[in-house]
Specification:
The protein is an alpha+beta fold. The chain is built from 14 helices and 23 strands. Bound molecules: uridine-diphosphate-2(N-acetylglucosaminyl) butyric acid.
């Protein structure tokens, strides 16, 4: 298990190219199961989650090749039963349920477990698939779904915390091969949902309205192969933007989609960070005294939960009181106790973290608990005095392509070390 040794104090300077979006690629990989023809996906980040999803597709019978950020999947002949342990390990693998049901009219997929960021139910996924005619039972830890016929329907997918991203994807992927028209109300509006719809439409699906709360899917009898490039990762872009501001450096993000980053950039500007846009390039620098801000995570186009931990580090640096309220995953504050080891003063009150910023941070050994918490700890290490050892960084490798190399090119003093 690797760790990262981060020496604080070096501001980040230079350009960084943003990789493809993890949360687009995973459901798009699952969508390749909908056709017997070969598919090519471009700008695929080299991540352990992508490798893992590739193994899941292979275990279902697909041929998968990955080279130079291009992934080829040929799901000529597949089976509907996923490997229990393989699927159980990764939450994102639940998105094979919809495509298996769409193509084979049956699926047996292990239930994804809860995880460190809070309970991760799949009731909305199942409700949506049932509305299309699937019979679903939970048996021996598996979700067992059958649907001799899938028939389009009007359905509402809003939950306690708002819409569901992968749930919307799952229902969309089953509905593309259903008879008739499906209308999903309270659909997730995230750019990754729009990207999945874009891929499905390139395969011959008829989806309109993706990106709005109402998605309409006119079922077709079959889909064909497709060649598609995924969108850049807005959370990776947000992470580098926050790191640039936190280290008092100046970083230009290349190849990002500024139109997917409005909420993050708006909060950074409110905090006093300078953001300049030249076409698709975004240059971020601190440019003066930071101001405390309050942030509430919300479904898109609100502030993303996946950038909450990173933003907390910037607020910990900023003199004054900032409040971050987490509305998507109630327990997503595992980074707080680790940031405290570096000297941050943060108290949790229900769904909110109260950050008394401006205390000096000094390096310490810390433990990464999930992907975005790990990114936050790395940013904290970059600004803390002395050396921070971030342990268990396999979380980071799940979702950030070459993050240490990218940071080193920007001037960070960061090294990978094998954990004893
Ligand atoms: N929810 C339910 N029932 C469901 C599904 C979700 O109550 O059936 C609740 C969840 O518990 C949560 C809220 O709805 O409170 C939103 O969850 P959502 O389903 O949208 O999350 P997800 O689709 O499982 C994706 C990303 C997450 C990201 C969330 C929210 C992938 C692979 N994962 O998860 O990404 O935080 O959307 O934007 O796309 C990450 O990249 O670090 C990450 C965790």
């Amino acid at each position: 298990m690797d760790s990262l040794l981060v020496k604080g104090g070096a501001p980040l300077h230079g350009e960084v190219t943003i990789s493809g979006a993890k949360n687009s690629v995973l459901p798009i990989m699952a969508a390749t199961l909908l056709t017997a023809e070969p598919c090519t996906i471009r700008r695929v980040p080299e991540l352990s989650d992508v490798k893992f999803m590739g193994q899941i597709l292979t275990s279902l019978g697909a041929e998968v090749k990955f080279e130079d950020n291009t992934l080829s999947v040929h799901a000529g002949k597949i089976k509907g039963v996923g490997d229990y342990d393989l699927i159980r390990k990764m939450r994102g693998s639940i998105c094979i349920l919809g495509p298996l049901l769409g193509r084979l009219r049956k699926a047996k997929v292990s239930l994804p477990g809860g995880c460190v960021i809070g309970s991760r139910p799949i009731d909305l996924h199942l409700k949506g698939l049932q509305a299309l005619g699937a019979k679903i039972s939970i048996n021996g830890g598996y979700v067992v779904a059958t649907a001799p016929r899938l028939v389009g329907n009007d359905l509402f997918l809003g939950g306690r915390s708002g819409p569901t991203v992968l749930g919307t994807g799952n229902v969309m992927m089953a509905a593309v091969l259903a008879e008739g028209v499906t209308i999903i109300e309270s659909a997730a509006c995230e750019p990754e949902v729009v990207d999945l719809a874009g891929f499905l439409n390139t395969m011959g699906a008829k989806i309109s309205g993706a990106g709005s709360p109402t998605i309409t899917i006119a079922g077709v009898s079959e889909l064909h192969g497709a060649d598609y490039e995924v969108i850049p990762d807005r959370i990776e872009a947000a992470t580098f933007a926050i790191a640039a501001a936190a280290t008092d450096g100046e970083v230009t993000l290349l190849g990002s989609r500024p139109d997917h980053l409005h909420a993050v950039l708006d909060k950074l500007r409110e905090a006093g960070v300078k953001v300049e846009r030249r076409g698709p390039a975004l240059t971020v620098r601190r440019g003066g005294r930071l101001k405390p801000v309050d942030v509430t995570t919300l479904p898109y186009a609100g502030f993303p939960t996946d950038a909450q931990a990173q933003m907390m580090v910037l607020m910990a640096l900023t003199s004054g009181i900032s409040i971050i309220t987490e509305r998507i995953f109630e327990a997503r504050f595992m980074h707080v106790s680790e940031l405290a080891r570096l000297g941050a003063d943060i108290a949790i009150e229900g769904p909110s973290a109260i950050i008394r910023g401006g205390k000096p941070l000094s390096g310490a050994p810390v433990m990464a608990s999930d992907l975005r918490a790990s990114a936050a700890l790395v940013i904290a290490g970059l600004i803390a005095k002395g050396t921070t050892l971030v342990k268990r960084i396999y979380h980071l490798d799940r979702g950030y392509e070459n993050i240490d190399a990218k940071l080193r090119r920007l001037g960070a003093r960061i090294e990978r070390a094998a954990e004893s």
